[in-house]
Write a structure and sequence with these properties.
Distance between the termini: 61 Å
Radius of gyration: 25 Å
Largest sheet: 5 strands, antiparallel
Helix content: 25-40%
Structural class: alpha+beta
């Protein structure tokens, strides 16, 4: 009986030992994988942001200097979104916000818009859309430079009516035969600029989320 008890105890201890070791290894592997995924996602996000807000515009940890913006009809957002704040030598320099053009030809067009503290747009990129291939391709920076025309735009450079496509009497170029997509993007960018100007002080004064 004593031998049986000792054998049973030894087996139980061995099982416990291997269970602890296995759980520890799994936890370590999960944490390591999770950390690598998080690092990859952060790197991809920063790479995209730097297309509209070059590193020359800021010297802070932009990804960790964020504030959460509430859903906004002006931005076209239906849920909270992050705003990434750039600072240069301790002074506010640029902010990157998300905006949605709800009236694209085939649905919503998701954008990021970088705006310098002085109200000049640094850059715009389309991050997601469902526009018709061919007609909608030119809003994709990888296929056309059209989206770059918003760089340098401001209310000092363009009057209110100038933010329309030329067909509507504005100054925004567009591809013949396709006005709905550029019209939607131009409107969304213009609204994002208005949002920034109305909330500039609060955007940079608010304490960071992180």
């Amino acid at each position: 009986m004593k031998r049986l008890t000792k054998a049973t105890l030894r087996t139980a201890l061995n099982l416990f030992f291997f269970t602890v070791i296995g759980t520890t290894i799994l936890a370590y592997t999960f944490n390591l994988t999770h950390e690598r995924i998080a690092q990859s996602e952060a790197a991809a996000k920063l790479k995209l942001i730097n297309q509209v807000a070059p590193t020359a515009l800021y010297d802070n940890d932009l990804l960790n200097d964020t504030v959460t913006l509430p859903a906004s009809a002006q931005l076209g957002t239906e849920q909270e979104t992050p705003a990434y704040r750039g600072r240069l030598k301790g002074q506010p320099s640029v902010v990157v916000i998300e905006a949605i053009a709800p009236d694209g030809y085939s649905g919503k067009i998701s954008l990021i818009v970088a705006i310098n503290y002085d109200g000049v747009i640094s850059g715009v990129r389309v991050v997601a859309h469902k526009e018709t291939p061919g007609l909608g391709d030119y809003i994709d920076i990888a296929k056309n430079k059209w989206i770059s025309l918003f760089g340098g735009a401001s209310h000092q450079r363009y009057q209110e009516d100038d933010w329309k496509v030329k067909k509507d009497g504005g100054q925004i170029d567009y591809m013949a035969g396709a006005t709905i997509t550029p019209r939607a993007v131009a409107k969304a960018v213009h609204k994002a600029l208005h949002y920034f100007e109305e909330n500039r002080a609060r955007l940079f004064a608010q304490q960071a989320d992180n």
